[in-house]
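Re: that backbone. Tokens:
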């Protein structure tokens, strides 16, 4: 099954299959790959007077729709894919078979069904852990240090409209091999890309905001 799925994928298109529907996922606001109105066997054969008829998820013909690219060889690309475009895309291929001896013509029909889903990248957030040595766990300076650390970190990433969230600081006594007892602050925090102003930044992006958001949080 896995090898068969690989065979259905060409250099820049996805082949159909008369025996089952072909499922694929398209990232929102991007173009789908070309969906070919034929299977692997037909792609290696000559077709006489081929005709292709594509129908979208709403059951209506896709011919003439501005958001699709239909080629003369029966390939379909859905442009600027959105969640509302998800669903079944069905193509009917008709072509003639001519008997060599009698020149008798007959027409045959084959249907190919593609189920296409829109997807979004997950919003990224990063959790970090760090340890600092302290004299004693009871020091009031430990709390002050933690608050100052958060302030510095937030200042560093403020221009990226990111912020520090879900931060915590706990002090533990640690015995290392062949050494005495140490006191350490175990600090953890999460970098979130949703600081105040992130929506305004997203409005400047002509596509879905997730790419810009994830890039900022990685920085």
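Recovered sequence:
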């Amino acid at each position: 099954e896995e090898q068969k799925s690989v065979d259905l994928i060409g250099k820049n298109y996805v082949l159909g299959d008369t025996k089952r529907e072909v499922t694929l996922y398209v990232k929102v606001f991007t173009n789908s790959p070309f969906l070919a109105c034929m299977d692997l066997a037909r792609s290696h054969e000559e077709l006489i007077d081929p005709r292709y008829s594509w129908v979208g998820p709403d059951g209506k013909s896709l011919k003439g729709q501005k958001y699709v690219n239909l080629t003369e060889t029966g390939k379909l690309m859905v442009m600027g894919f959105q969640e509302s475009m998800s669903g079944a895309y069905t193509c009917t291929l008709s072509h003639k078979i001519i008997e060599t001896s009698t020149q008798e013509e007959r027409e045959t029909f084959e249907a190919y069904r593609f189920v296409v889903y829109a997807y979004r990248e997950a919003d990224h957030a990063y959790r970090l852990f760090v340890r600092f040595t302290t004299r004693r766990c009871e020091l009031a300076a430990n709390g002050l240090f933690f608050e100052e650390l958060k302030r510095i970190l937030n200042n560093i990433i403020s221009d990226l409209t990111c912020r520090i969230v879900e931060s915590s600081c706990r002090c533990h006594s640690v015995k290392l091999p062949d050494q005495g007892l140490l006191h350490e602050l175990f600090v953890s925090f999460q970098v979130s890309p949703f600081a105040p102003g992130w929506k305004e930044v997203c409005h400047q992006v002509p596509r879905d905001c997730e790419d810009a958001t994830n890039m900022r949080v990685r920085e």
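Residues 1-10 have pLDDT under 50 and may be disordered. Helices lie at 2-7, 141-157, 198-203, 210-218.
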